[in-house]
């Protein structure tokens, strides 16, 4: 069973037919096919995924999850399969939030348990001004109604959200180049599965399948050094 937080289009979401869809979903299904497994998906809040992997509920987690040193103490990761940064989203009419310094005294929304949350905590002078939501969409909606001044969230997801929700007057104020790499998380010590996943990633890249999936969801070529 593979865990994911399907609130993160275009990486993982539930499409209009109720099916799991997105870049991560297609990538993981392709990996599993190579290994000879069929993926059983489970949707859960992002903040709980690592714990469910540790308890053995999941065999793997793919969820736009950044490989970080602190997570590496709890789980193992595949080689990186995507490079990402953070974006600061504000109301379209906002003219005052232009750089990191402008966020010091602002109310910032984030998704609970994410690298965006950690970054937001560094940006504010009072940690009480960071509001953590179960999903990024909930934060965007509160930004829209003015309960928040900004949302810090992964750039490709925020960009995709804005394009799909043009009725919401929101925009990206600026990006923060965090240079994060997403990896597939595996239970600590399960080197056998980690190796199978890494080998499958290499093959998918060689065959052009990785580039095909990337192109479909991001409408551009993948960077040469990934995965
Ligand atoms: N990349 C960020 C992190 O690892 C956010 C991931 C959120 N993923 C999700 N499916 N909601 O913390």
Care to describe what's here?
This protein has two domains: 2-81 and 183-218, D-Maltodextrin-Binding Protein, domain 2 (3-Layer(aba) Sandwich); 85-179, Periplasmic binding protein-like II (D-Maltodextrin-Binding Protein, domain 2). 34% of the residues lie in helices and 25% in strands. The protein is globular and about 50 Å long. It has helices at 23-35, 49-54, 69-72, 115-123, 136-144, 155-164, 191-206, 209-218; strands at residues 2-4, 7-8, 12-14, 20-21, 41-43, 60-61, 75-77, 82-91, 108-111, 130-133, 150-154, 170-182, 185-187. With 227 residues, it is an alpha/beta fold. It has a five-stranded mixed β-sheet. It contains eight helices and 13 strands. The structure holds arginine (ARG). The site of arginine has 14 residues, from strand 2.
Rg measurement, Å? 18 Å
Q: Roughly what percent helix?
A: 25-40%
Give the oligomeric state. Answer: single chain
Q: Could you give the order of the helices and strands?
A: EEEEHEHEHEEEHEHEHEEHH
Largest sheet: 5 strands, mixed
Query: Any idea how many domains?
Result: 2
Which percent range describes the beta-strand content?
Answer: 25-35%
Extract low-pLDDT stretches: none
- Walk across the major sheet and give the strand order: 5-1-6-13-7
Which geometry do the CA atoms define? globular
